[in-house]
Structures are given as structure tokens and as C-alpha cells.
Amino acid sequence: RSSDLTPSGIPDFRSPKSGLYSNLQRYDLPYPEAIFELNYFFHNPRPFFTLARELYPGNFRPNYVHYFLRHLHDRGQLLRLYTQNIDGLERGGTLCQSCWCCPWLHTAGADKP
Prior knowledge:
Largest sheet: none
Structural class: mainly alpha
Radius of gyration: 15 Å
Number of strands: 0
Order of helices and strands: HHH
Strand content: under 5%
Shape: elongated
């Protein structure tokens, strides 16, 4: 596994050359972080939805942390889970539907804002 990947095999955001922010040229963004900014999204949602579709569905696998969270959930010890992840790995059978904050993301498409 490359040190530039998360434990699930997803490229990290900031590694030079291999990080997500270093590989967004094809979206013709004013700057890499714009793909995740609300004002830019309202201006042009297509880059975000295209990227979200690439990161999900099924290209990556849950890692040991996801399974640990499921273990806590199954034991009734997980009260809440807050995440900034957009990969949807929690949907991969590791956590229940009631834990999802943005269940709509799994239906994202490049043609749907």
C-alpha cells in the first residue's frame, strides 16, 4: 500500500503528485479546493458529482476502523458518527442506515446537481 493512500486504498487529499488535490486538472477548477466549496458547487456542480461518482460506488473496501465502528454499533456503544468522508464506505454493510447523514450521495451522477 502506498503511503499516499488511506487504509481503504483511496488517495489522500494533499500528497504531492498523487493526492486528490494534485489530480483535479481535468475539472478545470480555479483552484483544487473549489471542488468542495459550496459557492463553486452552486456555480458548477458537475465536477463534484463526477468526482463523487468515481469515489463511490464499490471501488474501495471498508477498513478495520469501519469494522470497529460496526462493532461499537452492534454493542449499542455508538451514539453518533460524524464524518467528512464522501466515499460511502459506511454504506458497505459496516454501519446501519440510521447512521447515514447524507444517504443521497450514493445516487450522485455527473448529470444531476
